[in-house]
Design goal:
Endonuclease III, domain 1; 2 domains; 49% helix; globular; DNA-3mA_glycosylase
């Protein structure tokens, strides 16, 4: 069912998903759709979006600090050096999502991130797929789950050795880091993307 922006008790309009739970609200108001900078920040968002696949975003946000601790604050060199013992350690960690395919993809993606440095780095690579800004979505039904750019980004990342980076997951990443601004018309965060 399509939903328009919701006005909260504070009088501010928000995307419906960011108007309820305090953790979602804080993420919506201070981070989602805003540009991040640096390799670790981009690797973190890419990793968390991959872990979120099939789960609620709130589940990931509630475990975010545990993910940061488990994955060395998303330092690509540190995670790229993880071996089979580290994978087993992570699979035994109740503080994160324990999905072997996703854990192994996180290590693979850290290694691919290190390799991308020879070609300008992860941040520049992701931002090279930024589409032209579109009109503000009026309702949640107007927000796509993928785009031509997220499909192209997914293919390019796979070619560069990344795993678990499908078009829908990459579209969510693009939203998270401000490559696209899908804050709804009437949301006070609309326009926060650079």
């Amino acid at each position: 069912m399509a939903s328009a922006a919701v006005v909260g008790d504070d009088g501010l309009g928000r995307c419906p998903w960011g108007a309820g739970d305090p953790i979602n609200l804080a993420y919506h108001d201070t981070e989602w759709g805003m540009r991040v900078s640096g390799e670790a920040a981009h690797l973190e968002r890419l990793t968390l979006e991959a872990f979120q696949s099939g789960l609620s975003w709130l589940t990931i946000l509630n475990k975010r600090e545990n993910f940061r601790a488990a994955f060395a604050d998303f330092d690509a060199d540190a995670v790229a050096a993880f071996g089979p013992d580290d994978v087993e350690r992570l699979m035994a960690d109740p503080g994160i999502v324990r999905n072997r395919r996703k854990v192994e993809a996180a290590v693979t993606n850290a290694r691919a991130t290190v390799a991308l440095r020879e070609h300008g780095g992860l941040e520049a690579f992701l931002w090279s797929f930024r589409p032209e800004p579109g009109p503000a979505p009026l309702t949640t039904a107007d927000v796509p789950t993928s785009s031509p750019e997220s499909i192209a980004l997914s293919k390019a990342l796979k070619k560069a050795g990344f795993a678990h980076v499908g078009p829908t997951t990459m579209y969510a990443l693009m939203e998270a880091v401000g490559l696209v601004d899908d804050h709804l018309e009437g949301c006070h965060r609309r326009g926060c993307a650079v």
